[in-house]
Amino acid sequence: MAELVLVLGETGSGKSSSLRNLNAKETFLIQTTPKLLPFKGGAKNYTKITKENPKGNLFVSDKSNDIIRALKSINEREDIRYITLDDIQYSIVNSYMRRIREKSTGGDVFQKYAELAADYSDIINCIIHELRDDLIVFVASHVDIDDFGNATIKTVGKLINEKIKIEGMSSIVLMTAMVDGKYSFRVNGEGIQKSPMGMFETEVIDNDLALVVKAIEEWK
Length: 220
Prior knowledge:
- With 220 residues, the protein is of the alpha/beta class.
- Helix content is 30%, strand content 21%.
- It contains 6 helices and 10 strands.
- A hairpin with a 5-residue loop joins β6 and β7.
């Protein structure tokens, strides 16, 4: 199974910029919404995969079936070692918005939310159970912060939050933070973040996925 690493934080907190030091030749980026990468060279190093550009390393879709097909296709590419799935929350938020005008009541409403949860879960299960063991997959998501400062992965309501607990499906959860004026990751300590004992020497590291890759590979 692939190594699932969750990268969580509010918008603008450094999730996308954290892939700046990954080797783009070994990295495939899946975006759920098309946007410029927030670091120099992003547009040059990440190009859309097409028939004319079969070795591209960028795919854009917010549909769960498309994302799963892309993951399985990337799995066959021996040149790819890292996958980043950016803003996974839009795969469920946009699907919800596309269906928001559907007239439904009672059990139909519950069924709609159950299907959204299943689509989201299918993506995570594909990563964990169907991809190569040597792949590291970074899944980035926005979070919701409650009145007590507790963070949870952003979805579209309590019915789905009760069904989806992907934090429990990963051993490594990184939480973005601003520390001493620098974009950082919290990797241990109180909160949603966590990592295996001894993988990181400190509770806070730079927001650099290349450093995370190095820590994972050295720890194994």
